[in-house]
Amino acid sequence: MTPRELIDTASVPGGETLRLFRRGGDFMIVLDRNELMNSRMSGSEEALATMTCARIGSASPHILIGGYGMGFTLRAALAVLGSDAQITVAELVPEIIEWARGPMGALTAGCLDDPRVRLIRDDVAAVIERARGTYDAILLDVDNGPDALTHEGNDRLYAPRGLGAARMALRPGGVLAVWSAGPDASFARRLTHAGFRTDEVAVRARSNGKGPRHVIWFAHRD
């Protein structure tokens, strides 16, 4: 087996250290012993984009993506949205973007330079809190889902106050879509208590329909 090669590390503000590995043509982003992202597993992150876009009615939507990761969600959104769409990407860790433009440049495929994309190097929770009726959809692929691992402050995204802020940031009919590595019944209840009409979908990690099951919640603001 080809050994993993450590490419770089990044400190998460207020959190722990991320490590970028390469094995052959594959990349992995690892926290401690947890593999947060792998370039071979993109299916559920792509579904986060495509299934959300199918649920919004605007012909020229403005979408906020929280967490660039390896860009799977962004690239999938760009592939299905028209030229009038706007996508704001909020990424807290600057090295993630450096990796996207550097060692993972082939994987990124120029998506950060698409004219529909605006990149903000900021905490997505802060971006949401500043917004009022701004977005047709908010896509959160931050940390490991509601079970925050990398950054303690991510908990505020999934707490009642954070969900209330997300609802205020959405336009009427907007969708808050949340990716998670697994189910979380208490989080599903919080979405309902925050005033969302919610459906929960299980999706496979790989684009070929294989791999572990991940969860996406689609929370609709009426």
- Kindly report the average pLDDT value: 92
Strand order of the largest sheet: 7-6-5-8-9-11-10
CATH class: Alpha Beta
**Mind telling me which CATH architecture this is?**
3-Layer(aba) Sandwich
Class inferred from helices and paired strands: alpha/beta
The whole-angstrom Rg is 16 Å
The termini sit apart by 52 Å
CATH level-3 fold name = Rossmann fold
| Tally of domains | 1
Return residue spans where pLDDT drops below 50 for at least 5 consecutive residues.
none
DSSP summary, beta strand count: 11
How many individual helices?
A: 8
The percent of residues in helical segments reads: 25-40%
User: Beta-sheet strand percentage?
Assistant: 25-35%
Succession of helices and strands: EEEEHEHEHHEHEHHEHEE
- What would the principal axes of the Cα set say about the shape? globular
CATH superfamily: Vaccinia Virus protein VP39
Largest sheet: 7 strands, mixed
